Amino acid sequence: MEEMEFTDVVSAPVPPTGTPEQLLRNETDRIRADVLRFTQDMRDATRRLNDTMAQLALREEELARVNERLVDVDQAKTTFVSNIAHEFRNPLQLMLGPLEDGLARAASGVGVQREMLELAHRNALRLLKLVASLRDFSRVDSRQAEATYRPIDLGRFTAELTGQFESACAHCGLALVSDCPPMDEPTYVDPEMWEKIVFNLLSNAFKYTFTGTIRVAVGKADGGTELVVQDTGIGIAADDIGHIFERFYRVKGARGRSIEGSGIGLALTHDLVALHGGSIDVASTPGAGSSFRVRIPLGTAHLPADRISAAPEVTPTAAGAKEYVAEILSWEGHQEEAAEAKTVPGGGEERAAPPVGGQRLRILVAEDNRDMRAYAVRLLEGAGYDVRAVGDGEAALAAAREEPPPDLILIDIVMPKLDGVALLRALRSSPKTEGVLAILVSVRAGADARIQGLDAGADDYIVKPFSSAELLARIAATIR
Ligand code: ATP
Ligand code: MG
Q: What is the spatial distance between Cα 89 and Cα 113, in angstroms, rounded to a whole number?
């Protein structure tokens, strides 16, 4: 204690000296200087604050202008998409008419011409469906959806819609169970929208189910009408399930009958259900299957009064179904792989590719898109090659290991089961197949994709779309 007091005394400042008047003057001067400094600081701070406020006001104006422009741009985007969809639709429909005529006339004949017509027809239909989704989407987006809600027996209507998928399912060995009895009370829906809801869910169930059953059921539940579309397909992992209703979301690496798709279907379905005041949810077990459930309230209290019509008039538009059914039928090509994966005799001698040791060169085409595959086979056969085609990477690997091995493999990068790059790696890592020539085919242009392909051991790389002349030239150059 004593030590501390001692230390305090030693460290204390020397007290000021002078007369009391002097001391007072000094103190007054010091305070005046302080006040002056403080006033100056305040003035500076106020000036800075004023500057900042002025800038803020400017920014606010700018922001308002940008916002206005964004609204304009958004509007322009919607109009643009809607216009494009419209502009695409007409020429497509003009194409479809003559194509269907030609198909009818060619019905008796067989051969290339008919195949070509079918190919063009199927793809025109697919484009038409894409355009239709794009259009629906831009409409839902801008809330322009001009729905007309009509009192409809959803049991009967849904059964009719489900019926359109019967032959496709039968063809693929899938059971289709329709549990949609007539209902004693109508549900208010926009028939066209309901059709899209059912078709999207059904086409997904079909796309992601390889064996088993698709079940469609309609019934009453919780004061509303419930639609359940259930499959025994690949299922959806917990990490993905929260995202599948998002626009453009597709489960990575999902195995389906087709890898085609844009991830629009469920997002659109979700929006259409919302336009009915309803809800959609899903339960799924990976490897076991998925079940999508849509609920629509009964009555009309939840709907805008000016969009309700008393007339039921249910007419399932065959055209709408046609787009979906044609699309899923084009996926069925995968079921025919076995039949297609045969050696087919080549074309005329005069166009024959240079024989090696007196034999025609063997080309294996690994391509999952049925139309693309048929196109490549026809082209290469015509050029005198001995062609074999398969629809996925695993089948390609198996075919490459058979005797005699192919001289060259044309590999599509995006394929189910085993993608092109993985297939190439597998080929290169086995002494039996490491020497086979390989050309990668992809839609991805750009140096990166090219380097990745060549890195994996490709002899060449070709980007879709390519002309037939380009493909033949590349193959000839690679062989040389
Ligand atoms: P689109 O419908 O635009 O042609 P898509 O079918 O891939 O393409 P969505 O219908 O939106 O797109 O589905 C999104 C994703 O959800 C799919 O890519 C798929 O991975 C997954 N999915 C949807 N339905 C099922 C199902 N029944 N079983 C398993 N996975 C499904
Ligand atoms: Mg879909």
A: 25
Amino acid letter, 477: A
End-to-end CA distance of the chain: 102
Whether this model's pTM surpasses 0.70:
no
What does the pLDDT read at residue 347? 30
Tens of pLDDT, residue by residue over 271-301, are 999 999 999 999 999 999 999 999 999 999 9
Ligand 1 pocket test, candidate residues 126, 140, 234, 266, most atoms within 8 A of CB: 266
CA–CA separation, 22 and 24 (whole Å)? 5
The rounded distance, in Å, linking the Cα atoms of 439 and 471 is 10
Reported as a single tens digit per residue, the pLDDT across 51-95 is 999 999 999 999 999 998 888 887 777 777 777 776 677 667 677
Rounded Cα distance, 363 and 173, in Å: 31
pLDDT of residue 10: 52
Ligand 1 neighbour 262 (Cβ under 6 A)? yes
Say yes or no: CB of residue 265 within 6 Å of ligand 1: yes
| Residues contacting residue 394 through CB under 8 Å, at least 6 positions apart | 417, 418
Cα–Cα dist 358/346, whole Å = 15
* Percent above pLDDT 90 for the chain: 39
